[in-house]
Design goal:
This protein has helices spanning about 5-15, 25-30, 65-70, 70-75, 115-125, 145-160, 170-175; strands at about 35-40, 55-60, 80-85, 100-105, 125-135, 180-190, 200-205. The model has no long low-confidence stretch (mean pLDDT about 95). The chain has a 7-stranded mixed beta sheet with strand order 3-2-1-4-5-7-6. It is of the alpha/beta class.
């Protein structure tokens, strides 16, 4: 990772992902989490205040040292133990059937091999485990004008945000990796330009 990716992008993401408008969405996606969970794309810990009390521990997966440092205050204010467990969601250092649930928020857009990461999450989930997700990606099929703008802006988005894509089809990625989506809400984030704010929020189970 270069200087921009290591020192600048985590600060930009910390601010962008820390906006008050995202808090109701974080609260929604964390609802129902319990037991030992794994969070891929932990970033600077913006989900920590929204973990339900039923969560007993969190394995945080993220490559950024600076992001982990920026998360210290949020982690310290929580009663739920959070440990930095791995840097790479594409190769998780855990046995099969380890976790009760998984959490991913605005992460699948940036992981180089999202399919590999999802298959790893599926592998480490216990039978009956759930993946709670909140991701931005390709706009709904009926909004072709938004999709056109996403394709135009995607190269710039990738350069500015260290590989973030606007055009990944979130539900297709989940189903291709062997998940069944059991709960789904597709919407545009309030206050965000549509090409950047086409979100999918829901729950998936290993199929």
């Amino acid at each position: 990772m270069g200087f921009y990716a290591e020192r600048i992008v985590p600060r930009i993401v910390n601010v962008a992902c820390g906006m008050k408008t995202a808090e109701p969405l974080r609260r929604r996606v964390c609802e129902g989490l319990e037991g030992e969970i794994i969070e891929i794309g932990f970033g600077s810990g913006h989900n920590v205040p929204f973990y339900p009390a039923a969560v007993t521990g969190v394995a945080a997966v993220d490559p950024s040292d600076l992001g982990w440092k920026l998360a210290e205050e949020r982690i310290g204010a929580s009663n739920i133990p959070v440990r930095r467990a791995a840097p790479d969601g594409q190769s998780l250092p855990f046995e099969d059937d380890t976790f009760d649930a998984a959490l991913s928020t605005w992460t699948l857009c940036t992981i180089p091999d999202a399919d590999a990461a999802l298959r790893e999450v599926r592998r480490v989930l216990k039978p009956g485990g759930t993946l709670h997700f909140l991701e931005h990606g390709l706009a709904p099929e009926e909004d072709e004008s938004v999709r056109r703008w996403q394709r135009r802006l995607d190269p710039l988005e990738q350069r500015l945000f260290d590989g973030c894509h606007l055009t990944r089809p979130i539900v297709d990625l989940l189903t291709s990796a062997g998940f069944t989506v059991t709960d789904l809400d597709v919407f545009y984030e309030k206050g965000a330009p549509k090409p950047m704010g086409a979100d999918s929020l829901g729950v998936a189970i290993p199929g």
